[in-house]
Amino acid sequence: MSKVVKFGGSSLASAEQFEKVGKIIRSDKERRYVVPSAPGKRFSEDIKVTDMLYSCYALAEEGKDFSKELEAIKERYNGIIEGLKLKLSLDDRFEEIKKQFAAKAGKDYAASRGEFLNGIIMANYLGYEFLDAAEVVFFNEKGEFDAAKTDAVLSERLQTMSNVVVPGFYGSNPDGSVRTFSRGGSDITGSIVAKAAKVDVYENWTDVSGILIADPRIIKDPVGIEVITYKELRELAYMGFNVLHEDAIFPVRQMGIPINIRNTNAPMDEGTWIVGSTCQKSKYTVTGIAGKKGFCSINIEKDMMNSEIGFGRKVLQAFEENGISFEHVPSGIDTMTVFVHQDEFMHKEQKVVSAINRLAKPDVIEIEADLALIAVVGRGMKSTRGTAGRIFSALAHNNVNVKMIDQGSSEQNIIIGVANEDFETAIKAIYDIFVSTRL
Ligand code: ASP
Q: pTM for the complete prediction?
């Protein structure tokens, strides 16, 4: 048995946090592959090292003096090294970074140093080998992650190593320059390493004891999710759950490796298991409730629309021509509604409307702004009758007007459109009906 353990920035923000991480790793021999993030915030007003690196590099790029800013970053690392009483100096590394910044090595190179340096400290602290992610994680000419090449090279390298630290968040371009994933991308590295090393579990350590059923900013002390499938999580992540980077699911999903989200500050908690499939029923009918504000709906009406072949395609072409992606397209007999992100659509609104008029020749087009979408997700919904009924009566009791309903064919996801101002009330009503009253 072996495990990948990925630690997020808050788990590695200080020497004290590193000590907790050290204890976790040493308590289980199977934790052989370690993927660290850069040091995160130690307190709420603190600045993440990644953000410090971005601002420091912005100065370098403008040809301004960046020595004070780089010194502040060095102090963050030296604080950790001293706190852990390590015999390690990063002076040479910082000399090199200074040179590269002056030579304008790029924003990605700059940001990646956060994980790179933390990886060196982690390897030294644990007595593990260090493997630079630039040597084993690859992007192609188009800047996309090259899964096949990465997996081939990385799995071969890992076969020769028993205990290793691979810094998260970055890899290299075909020309050897450094490239990062999008923010939070160390989660992806963890998943890539898990796949290449063919581990049994990918543990993702953070500062919460797993994934919560609903957003704690809306629901006070929501209950945690014990087991969730990749598919459910993907639906929820899309709607705003941000415990794990959404692209982190793909590599492990292919291999069926479960992800266990754990809390560095409460290591005894079981956390949440993200799995391929499970016979474990979720405690409640719904597994999670997520949502986002800021949508706009474009309602299109045309008599006999249902018999006009290609109508939907023409409408969607109007959005495509203007580079706007659509979120949902519920339709009726002579109506079709397209949901889009308001901020993306706003500036192009009239162009899209005239394109719809030109291409599809509808009778009426109406636009409604300031809408929110809520996803109620759960594998248990498939086998439970009346879920939709319960949701809508709960919303009605709370005076929430439902603007749109869309049930995915998977029967695991019901999407509801409401006005932005009803968003919180709607989430609370749905949470109460399923969780607080335990239905
Ligand atoms: N350090 C990077 C960030 O702040 C990547 C990560 O933590 O996953 O986004």
A: 0.87
